[in-house]
Amino acid sequence: MGGRTVEYHDPFNVYELLSPGLLARLPLRTLHWESHSGPLRSIRSLHVDLVSAAEAQIPPSASTSELSRVKSNESTTSGDDGFRTQPLGKPSEDGSRDDGKPGPLQAPLKGRRHQIPGLRQTPYLKVFLLRCDDNDTYKNVARKQVREWMKAHTPPTQTTAKLSAQENHDAFEFLIIHVIVPNTAAATQPRTSGKGSSTVYEKLRVDFNGTSKSAVDRVAQIRIGVNDVPYDRLPRVVPAIPGSYTESPQEHETSWQDLIAKFKKLILDSFDMRVTQYEEDIREKDAQRALPGWNFCTFFVLKEGLARGFESVGLVEDSLVGYDELAVGLDAILREQAATGTGAEHGGSFLPYTKDLLTQVESAKYKILQDNGMNSPNSEIPIDLQTASNVPRSDQDEIVLSADRKPYRELILANNISIFDFKCYLFARQLALLLRMGNALSSREELLAKLKEQRETALLGVAARHPPAQQNDEGENLSILSEICRRSLDFVASISQIMRDDLTVAVLQVSQKQNADTETDVPAVLGDPVTAQAIDNVVSSFTFSVAQQILAQTATRSLPIPPSTLAPVNSTADGPDQEKVAIPEPKTMMHPARSSSIIMNLPARSPSPNVFPGVRNNFPSPESNASISSTFLKAGLEDLAASRAQIYILSRGVLERFGRQHEWSVGWDAPTIGGAGEMEDVDLVPESKETQDRVHKISPSLHGIDNALLRTALGNQDDFYRLFEILTDKALRHFSVAGHVQSVQANMADLALLRYHLKDYAGAASYLYRLTRFYGEAGWEEIQMSMLVMYVKCLKDLKRYDEYVKIAITLLSKGAAQEKARLVRKSGFKFGHGGSLEHDEDLSIDGYLTDLMTVVPTLQHDISVPLKYFFASIEVEGAARYHEERDSFSLQFKLRYLLPDDLHVDRGKARLVPVTGGQGRDIWLDIEEPTDIKAGINRVQFQSSVSPDIQIIYILLTL
User: pTM (2 decimals)?
Assistant: First the structure.
């Protein structure tokens, strides 16, 4: 039902004089449509597309994009200088006609109406632009011309016949605009004389508005000011008429308001007639759903016609509801066909696979086989080596979700579309509507470009009396942009599986066709490593491209993303003219964030204690994000930030999978404490030795990957790491705005692991400082210990020994605490899980105490460390032993040492404290000689030179 909206007939060539004032008042604002089946709808803005009747007559086969609407080059390509004495307007096809005489009226092009109304493109309103300079001309010529035009162009309802249902789909209204040119007799007449029908305007209303009280006013009048027409093109001045009329500025504006009001009413009237007919037809088709032969594709085109009609008048929400219902209907048909095994018998049939996807896979297979020195199997699929090259065809190919990428509607109507293409078209239409609802930059630029294109048709150098162009200052709707991201994540999850199933079926059918004489080994076909790699490359590239497209289309300056803190890429080039790296910096990537952050200098609420002490200038905490002033916060800001972050994570996941194929680690093979150790993949379907050998020979390939950014990142290891880091950093900063604390830390851990893997210990240490504190306070002991292991390595390599000693002691105390918890569980004193150390056999902090002892002597000051964290089950074993020949005694202590490395003790003391208090003094005991304490149970002898008090029972071990 979408159409050109307004079609104008301009036999007198006055459109270019009228257009400056008309286009400046477009788009139409604040329209109200009362549906017969729903509540009153308000249309805030309706972008009117003005098309001349001459262009509308061009048959579809001859039409081009240059003829779709009024173009700014129409008055420049003819060689005319734009200044003529007469006639007014641009040259007509009849160049010999006299001043003020119209060109021949064009009859509407008669052609066979398309049987499916949803595919027709017809105007909502037809406008006849009339120039009539005086009453005599109207009586002798103009009235007849208008009647002939109405007879040829207006619907039968304007005469006597009743509109049929078929014609209701193309219902339209008509409007006559009397354009008064300066220096004519009509210019001296007022709009109404009060004496019957003495003016041209009054005569038009009497002759063409009807006589009933309910008749619609279809006549308007606009006066062209003398300053609106170049001097050399003004008609000759008519003789002065006593009492002639001069229009005031208020009357001039009133006439324009009257015209705009008629535009609104007539467009909505024709729209209402179309909607009524469409809804009636849709109800009828839907009621036939259970009948044999019912076809979903035909029903889709019909209902989409209604959705496109809503879209064409600005009712985007209603249009989206229609497409959502169609998406649900398609899923229902597919589930029913899958459950019952029926196809064309109910709901219609779909292509088993997508041909162009198969072509991509076959092209990729051909190139992969060539790279590996193998012969290409015979294939009936034509391979275009141009499109199979390593370079993407064009930037337009990066936009994978577009309703114009293929002739989808024609394919749907012909029942010649695959499920993959159907799903892509549906989502592309939903995406376009959501972008328009969200006032996204991409959608807004497209609409404004159309409006600007029309405005550029105004005559240059004409001082027309019209208001300045209306500007759309509305910001983006962040809630809608967030909804786009959410839907996109769901779409990617489903379309990736549909795409793989599509290609699997295609490969099987091609293989069966090629080997018709022999039985096809399905597992062998599907397990072919070349085919598997080609399919994976095509699907992953599509997924990555979708993610990048959504990120670009939902980008907004309203999202206060903090600036990146990533270090620049190292370069060996010298001087300022060094070549730019292949992977751009985070701030210059295809989806740039703000170059500065409002968050950084705003007052923050009190954060959680000791989460990120002293680092708020680098990474703003989510709590500080929440303190943004209410004037800046927008609805949906946090949801949009979180959903965009998830898309960055999705993109990174695709990149990481390809990195694993190239054996490029991103750091997760770093040393850990208390983990499950190495894990091996177990193939549930054993492969033959031949297949295994072949898999081993196939090297990772980029063939089938069309996304330019992804190909660049996979070109070498440095670019891979750079893009991985950029995507992680962008996700982290988005999560920070969203207030997702755990996700911020998880992405920071990814950056730390990558930097550690790349031996950038300074960069890794800056992240690990924050991470170790956070995970420790959050109770994630295993993660904290893994981070501490890397942190100790970084600090030692950087020779930051003071910090190294502190962190190493923390690591040892954590390891001892976990060993103590294991012993408690093992002894049965604590039931249940009691902790996360289920793989205690992998617990190993060997060597850290030894390294620590080698560093401690180099420190400039002493460090006091309570040894109680490293011991358990400290008790006095047996009674005190008295020495016969000296006034002293000794005690034997039994204690469990929790660390794996031996601890050499030069001096040790034990203190005996009176239980009853009073004036009794403490008694100190010393070890008899230096000793080495080993892992497990140890017995240490302490002795004293004084006699003990029988009541002393409390013992404290100190260093």
Answer: 0.78
